[in-house]
Amino acid sequence: MQRTFSILKPDTVRKGQTGAVLAMMEAAGFRIAAIKKLSISKQQAAGFYAVHAQRSFFDSLTTFMSSGPIFVMVLEKENAIADLRKLMGATNPANAEEGTIRKKFAGSIEENAVHGSDAEETAAFEIGYFFAGYELA
Ligand code: GDP
User: Fold this and answer.
1) Which is nearest to 66 in space by CA: 47, 85, 89?
2) CATH hierarchy code of domain 2-135
């Protein structure tokens, strides 16, 4: 079993697509180990996306991520990290394959519905950023 970290971004929650995206995740074999709804500040979004601090879209991305409620979650399955990336589809929905979350729900390269960790180290950092140990016991 492997754990990964995911976010349903503000666009997903705003458009009422939370349940539909979660259903796709469960249908793909992910178990939701922990989930919570919260709103984050621009500063908290900046801490989460610190690796992108030098990118041109950083200010816009952190404004978007703090623009409304999100769901943060820990997902479990074998090969969870790679499999979630596959299920999400390409960052830019214009390039996302049929049957992926972003193909179905993302509106733009920025408002792209969902986040998923890209490696084991990243998953550990991201899970620890939003969840305490007791929430995953
Ligand atoms: P991901 O791993 O597929 O989420 O993509 P990245 O780690 O490269 O980027 C993080 C997030 O920043 C993406 O999911 C988008 O929300 C946003 N993003 C990435 N590239 C761009 C871009 O070129 N323009 C804008 N406005 N946002 C971007």
Assistant:
1) 47
2) 3.30.70.141
